[in-house]
């Protein structure tokens, strides 16, 4: 039986400032550092053969804090661009509340939560899913099939896209999928990649 653990990075300085972040390369806030350590504690006793994160600092730092535990200190760690947050285009760096006043909250909700609609100059969740699933199928699935246990640290929309794929959620269902900073989700796969367990920790 193979294990896949998904962790959203801890709170970033941009999360704290309530701005659209996307590919902006921001650090964890002090709370975010604590959330990463809490995630590590939730995973105490788990075995991992390899770990992956996006190549953005907030994701890299979260993974680094988790694997700083002696039990995981020697596992291979990979930081990859395919796991980056969705690209928020023209909205990146803008305050969410101020942007809602300009465009209306209904439009902001469509840009943030819908599957197919992209923010101006950015990626839709559908486009984000395409690159994330391509990486997952090529790099992660063969390891899971071989019985290897994998830790993957990424971003809210990256993980929404991947969970939509793994759990076969509809575009309507994924609109309400919330993944908190520092959130941990565990999948266990049986023979032929049959999903036998899916739970939040």
From TrEMBL:
Reaction catalysis annotation: (2R)-2-phosphoglycerate = (2R)-3-phosphoglycerate
Active site, UniProt feature: 9 (tele-phosphohistidine intermediate), 85 (proton donor/acceptor)
Binding site for substrate: 8-15, 21-22, 58, 85-88, 96, 112-113, 156-157
Residues passing through the membrane, by range: none
Biological process per Gene Ontology, one example term: gluconeogenesis
A GO MF term: phosphoglycerate mutase activity
Pathway membership, UniProt: Carbohydrate degradation; glycolysis; pyruvate from D-glyceraldehyde 3-phosphate: step 3/5
Entry keyword set: Gluconeogenesis, Glycolysis, Isomerase
EC number: 5.4.2.11
Site keyed Transition state stabilizer: positions: 155
Cross-referenced SMART domains: PGAM (SM00855)
Sequence similarity: Belongs to the phosphoglycerate mutase family. BPG-dependent PGAM subfamily.
Role: Catalyzes the interconversion of 2-phosphoglycerate and 3-phosphoglycerate.
Protein name: 2,3-bisphosphoglycerate-dependent phosphoglycerate mutase
Species name: Hymenobacter cyanobacteriorum
Gene that encodes it: gpmA
């Amino acid at each position: 039986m193979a294990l896949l653990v998904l962790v959203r990075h801890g709170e970033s300085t941009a999360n704290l400032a309530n701005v659209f972040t996307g590919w902006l390369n921001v650090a964890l806030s002090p709370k975010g550092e604590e959330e990463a350590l809490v995630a590590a504690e939730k995973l105490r006793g788990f075995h991992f053969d390899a770990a992956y994160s996006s190549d953005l600092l907030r994701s890299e730092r979260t993974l680094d804090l988790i694997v700083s535990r002696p039990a995981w200190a020697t596992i291979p760690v990979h930081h990859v661009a395919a796991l980056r947050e969705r690209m928020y285009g023209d909205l990146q760096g803008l305050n969410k509340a101020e942007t809602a006043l300009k465009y209306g909250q209904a439009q902001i909700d469509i840009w943030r939560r819908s599957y197919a609609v992209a923010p101006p100059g950015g990626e839709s969740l559908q486009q984000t899913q395409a690159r994330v699933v391509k990486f997952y199928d090529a790099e992660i699935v063969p390891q899971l099939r071989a019985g290897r246990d994998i830790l993957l640290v990424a971003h809210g929309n990256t993980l929404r896209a991947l969970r939509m794929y793994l759990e076969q959620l509809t575009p309507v269902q994924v609109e309400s999928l919330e993944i908190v900073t520092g959130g941990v989700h565990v999948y266990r796969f049986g023979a032929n990649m049959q999903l036998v367990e899916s739970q939040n920790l």
